[in-house]
């Protein structure tokens, strides 16, 4: 995949677009979505990350891209209007980070496995059954589409600590420029 020159900037919390639920992609949006998806992948790979949702690049559409790159081989998945249709009763806790909260990590508990229904760029419907890292990644990206950040799954104390740390690091980085 050729990397587009004009990478969309990834928003950093507490940008208001990150807390705004995205609207469903409609047929009239598909041309724009087909242009945006490769730019989102390029921005995600450059960051680097394994998932990116459209609200993170200030586009309020239910679109996400994911690539766990197993064995360092790209296996990109574009999810248009994804929705979780099944969750396991078992939960798993794993460390999560986010391109919109650079350098911040915390343990997040989520359903251990999920089924996600989505459309691809051609409008074809798919379902994916996921567990482990893929399950966490899909839930994390769908959360973004609902205006939820991974820190919203934490206690208020832990969330506030991470957000203050992020703000302090950004302020220091800005002062060094």
Care to describe what's here?
By secondary structure, the chain is an alpha+beta fold. It has one domain: Alpha-Beta Complex (Peptide Deformylase), CATH 3.90.45.10. It has three helices and seven strands; from the N terminus they run αβββββββαα. The protein has helices at 30-46, 132-145, 156-176, and strands at residues 51-53, 63-66, 77-87, 91-96, 106-111, 113-119, 125-131. The strands form two sheets. The protein has a five-stranded antiparallel β-sheet with strand order 1-2-3-6-7. The mean pLDDT is 95.
Can I get a quick summary?
With 177 residues, this protein is α+β, with helices and mostly antiparallel strands. 29% of the residues lie in helices and 25% in strands.
- What oligomeric state best describes the polypeptide chains here? single chain
Please give the domain count. Answer: 1
CATH superfamily: Peptide deformylase
Annotation, overall tally of beta strands: 7
């Amino acid at each position: 995949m050729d990397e587009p020159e004009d990478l969309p900037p990834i928003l950093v919390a507490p940008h208001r677009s990150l807390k705004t639920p995205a609207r469903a992609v409609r047929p009239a949006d598909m041309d724009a979505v087909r242009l945006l998806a490769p730019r989102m992948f390029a921005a995600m790979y450059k960051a680097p990350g394994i998932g990116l949702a459209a609200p993170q690049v200030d586009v309020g559409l239910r679109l996400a891209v994911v690539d766990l790159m197993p064995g360092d081989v790209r296996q990109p998945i574009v999810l248009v209007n994804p929705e979780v249709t099944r969750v396991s009763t078992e939960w798993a806790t794993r460390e999560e980070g986010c391109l919109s909260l650079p350098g911040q990590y915390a343990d997040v508990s989520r359903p251990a496995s999920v089924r996600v229904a989505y459309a691809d760029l051609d409008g074809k419907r798919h379902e994916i059954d996921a567990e482990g890292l893929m399950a966490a990644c899909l839930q994390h990206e769908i959360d973004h589409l609902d205006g939820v950040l991974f820190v919203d799954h934490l206690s208020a104390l832990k969330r506030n600590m991470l957000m203050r740390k992020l703000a302090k690091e950004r302020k220091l980085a800005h002062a060094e420029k």
